[in-house]
């Protein structure tokens, strides 16, 4: 793994690293601008498969962060890229929102309820018993079981909500079949992101706020890993795990250059 000064490309988580409850974390806007000024390729990653990159770009802009949609990589995009590589022009039955359905359409997939190659479960706020029942029957009939991300719950202002991992667990219980999960902590999420920007593991850094997804996947992908304390991880949480990130910082503000960046002539 590279030293920080050898890093040429960056991957960064979104929630807990750049934003917290729709407010930008101090230093995030400046760090994004620093990468742009330095010409460093980067992607903002999220396990959330509900929204398209365009939607997320607009949400970040409303929070005060400028991130064009082409600089956003979601678990939905990673899933679509994986399935396109596995079976170009395949078919899928999808439980999810625009993020995953749009990504699969753009990858050339056909959405169908009739003998699909894959059943794909993504994030949604409108899970239906009918759709879950159909997914179970299709998987039992031979469709391959794919999940965009393993998160069991998601946040809301009222408290936790059941998320993709919880619905996948229900389907696994009913079918006795485990899904293939594409999003973090699968390092494939990072490898597909690096492919998107032409990055290599030996000179790529990953910034995250979770030991169990961002850091472990970054380590397994061979990246320089940075954990920030602006999300869910504190020293007690970090101590629970047998592995450690390359660096632990209070926030992304510590990654800002001390001197203005100057292009060499």
TrEMBL record:
<protein>
    <submittedName>
        <fullName>HAD-IIA family hydrolase</fullName>
    </submittedName>
</protein>
<comment type="similarity">
    <text>Belongs to the HAD-like hydrolase superfamily.</text>
</comment>
<dbReference type="GO" id="GO:0016787">
    <property type="term" value="F:hydrolase activity"/>
</dbReference>
<dbReference type="Pfam" id="PF13242">
    <property type="entry name" value="Hydrolase_like"/>
</dbReference>
<dbReference type="Pfam" id="PF13344">
    <property type="entry name" value="Hydrolase_6"/>
</dbReference>
<keyword id="KW-0378">Hydrolase</keyword>
<dbReference type="InterPro" id="IPR036412">
    <property type="entry name" value="HAD-like_sf"/>
</dbReference>
<dbReference type="InterPro" id="IPR006357">
    <property type="entry name" value="HAD-SF_hydro_IIA"/>
</dbReference>
<dbReference type="InterPro" id="IPR023214">
    <property type="entry name" value="HAD_sf"/>
</dbReference>
């Amino acid at each position: 793994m590279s030293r920080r000064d050898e890093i040429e490309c960056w991957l960064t988580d979104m929630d807990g690293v750049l934003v917290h409850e729709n407010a930008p974390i101090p230093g995030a806007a400046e760090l994004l601008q620093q990468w742009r000024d330095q010409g460093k390729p980067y992607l903002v990653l999220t396990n959330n498969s509900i929204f398209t990159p365009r939607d997320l770009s607009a949400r970040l802009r409303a929070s005060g962060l400028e991130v064009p949609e082409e600089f956003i990589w979601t678990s939905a995009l990673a899933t679509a890229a994986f399935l396109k590589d596995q079976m170009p022009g395949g078919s899928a039955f999808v439980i999810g929102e625009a993020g995953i359905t749009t990504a699969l359409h753009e990858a050339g997939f056909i959405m169908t309820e009739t003998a699909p190659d894959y059943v794909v479960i993504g994030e949604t706020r409108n899970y239906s018993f009918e759709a879950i029942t159909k997914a179970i029957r299709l998987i039992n009939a031979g469709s391959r079981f794919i999940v965009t991300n393993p998160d069991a719950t998601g946040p809301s202002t009222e408290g936790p909500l059941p998320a993709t991992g919880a619905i996948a667990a229900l389907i696994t219980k009913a079918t006795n079949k485990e899904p293939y999960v594409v999003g973090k902590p699968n390092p494939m999420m990072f490898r597909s992101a690096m492919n998107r920007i032409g990055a290599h593991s030996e000179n790529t850094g990953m910034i995250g706020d979770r030991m169990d997804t961002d850091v472990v996947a970054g380590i397994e992908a061979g990246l320089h890993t940075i954990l920030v304390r602006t999300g869910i991880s504190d020293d007690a949480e970090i101590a629970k795990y047998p592995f450690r990130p390359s660096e632990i910082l209070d926030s992304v503000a510590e990654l800002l250059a001390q001197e203005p960046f100057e292009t060499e002539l």
